[in-house]
Amino acid sequence: MPGADLPAALQPDAALLFETVREAGALGLRLSRQGVRHWKKPDGSTVTEADLEIDALLKARINAVRPEDGWLSEETPDDPARLARQRLWVADPIDGTNSFVNGTDGWCIGMALVAGQRPVLAALYRPALGEFFWAAQGCGAFCNDTRLTARDATGLQGAELLGTNRASRILEPCGVKGQHAPHIPLLLRLAFVAAGRADIALSFGNKNDWDLAAGDLLAEEAGAKVTGLDGRPYTYNNPQPWQNGLLAAGRERHAAVLAQLEKL
Q: How far apart are CA 146 and CA 149, in angstroms?
C-alpha cells in the first residue's frame, strides 16, 4: 500500500487520505460509465451529479475520522470556520469535469491535507488509467510505486510547456515548445511536471486552492518549484481560497521563466 513506509506520525492521515480518494475514484469511474446529469454553474463551469456525490463521499469520510479539521472543496460552500482550524483538507471531487462528461480519461480526483498553511499529504487519482499519484512532505512523490523526479535544465530551449496560448507566446521566443492545454486540468498539469511528462506549467489569472494544493506538493516533492506569478510559494487556508496564477517547473527553469515574466 502506498505510504506504508512513511513516518509513523503521517501514517494514519495517509491511510485515511489514500483510502478515501481510492473509494471516490471507484465511485467516479462507475458513474462515468453510467452517464450522469450535468449543468452549468453561475460562473459558466460545468458540474455533474458525480461531482456532488464524490464531494459528499470525501467530506463524510474525512469528517467521520477528523471532525476537528477544516474542509475546503470546490463543491462545498466555503465555511470561514476553517480559518481557525490548524489543519485543512482541500479537495477537488473532479478536476477535468468536461473530460468526465465527454467520456475521456483527462479527469482526476485530488485531495490534500494542509497544516501550517502548506500541504503535507496529497493524493491525485486517475481511475480511468489506474494512476495513483501521492506525496508526503519530506518523503518524495510517487505514481503508484514509482518515485517521481521533475525534469530540469539551465535553459529553456526545448522545454515542453503546458499552458495557454498566452503562455506559449511569451515563452516560444526562448525556445520553449508550447502546448495549448485547456483540456488538461491544473492538477494533472502539476502531476505531469512532477512525473517529467512536461517541463513547465504556466497559467495566468486567479487559481482556486482545490485546483492546486495536491499538485503543489506532488511537484515540490518531485524536485520542482511551484509558485504564483510573483515567484512566491503558495500558502493555503487564507480568507480568499485562490492564488495569483501558476508557475511550476524544475528549479533552474522556474527561475528562467520568472525572469521572462518580469520583462513583461
A: 10
CA distance 137 to 117: 13
User: DSSP code of 233?
Assistant: P
**What is the distance, to the nearest Å, from the Cα of residue 30 to the centroid of all Cα atoms in its chain?**
22
Q: What is the pTM of this model?
A: 0.96
The string of DSSP letters for 132-183 reads: EEEEETTTEEEETTEEP-----SS-TT-EEEE-HHHHHHHGGGT-EEEE-TT
Cβ atoms within 10 A of the Cβ of 11, count? 14
pLDDT in tens, the chain (264 residues): 576 689 898 999 999 999 999 999 999 999 998 888 887 888 878 889 999 999 999 999 999 999 999 999 999 999 999 999 999 999 999 999 989 998 899 999 999 999 999 999 999 999 999 999 999 999 999 999 999 999 999 999 999 999 988 999 999 999 999 776 778 999 999 999 999 999 999 999 999 999 999 999 999 999 999 999 999 999 999 999 999 999 999 999 999 999 999 998
Provide the grid cell at 168: 506559449
Q: Which domains does the chain have, with CATH numbers?
A: 11-147 (3.30.540.10), 160-262 (3.40.190.80)
- Which residues, at least 6 apart from 145, have a Cβ–Cβ distance to it below 8 Å? 2
